[in-house]
Amino acid sequence: MAPNHRSSREADLAQMQSLVEFTRARLGTEAQSPFGSSVVETDSGRLVLRRLNAVRQENDPSSHAEVRAMRAACKRLKKPSLVGHTLYTTCEPCPMCMAMALWSGVDRVVFGATIADAARHCAQIHVSARQLEQRSDMDCRVDGPVARASCVALFEDPRMVTAMALWRKSRRNPAKPLASRG
Fold first, then answer.
1. Which one, 68, 78, 162, 164, has the greatest CB density within 10 A?
2. Of 41, 66, 92, 133, which is the active-site residue?
3. What is the 3-state secondary structure (H, E, C) of the chain?
4. What would the pLDDT profile of 157-176 be if each residue is shown by its tens digit?
5. Model pTM?
């Protein structure tokens, strides 16, 4: 019988480190993003697939790594449910991504960097994944941060710092520090 990976801290760390390596390997390429996500079978730990954020490449504001991973996993599995699967993500899911995780039925969401970590580099909606999970009547456990320093390092990589600065300049409403919000 396969080991149960539901609550294994070591398995979570291994999955997250693998996702960080996948994401880091794409820095400096056309597909670079600090946001990576993977869908994994909860009980066996078998990787289904990984995706990166592709908002700029696809000109689609919903092309977040988590959304892309869950959509692709559902297509690969030929069903609209991800019950029996865990979503790993290098950054805490935004409300859109967490809502999709809830609707898809994933067992767990495991994240690395926090929304606050990401907000130091790009615009964020400051509602935590746990807040959304708690306000939902759907069963999904949120765990994190896991391998936070490794995930934050993706944002702090010089190639991403430059890319994020250019991205902020291109936006009509650049990210403002929380202290300046009224």
1. 68
2. 66
3. CCCCCCCCHHHHHHHHHHHHHHHHCCCCCCCCCCCEEEEEECCCCCEEEEEECCHHHHCCCCCCHHHHHHHHHHHHHCCCCCCCEEEEEEECCCHHHHHHHHHHCCCEEEEEECHHHHHCCCCCCCCCHHHHHHCCCCCCEEECCCCHHHHHHHHHCHHHHHHHHHHHHHCCCCCCCHHHCC
4. 998 988 888 777 777 555 55
5. 0.89
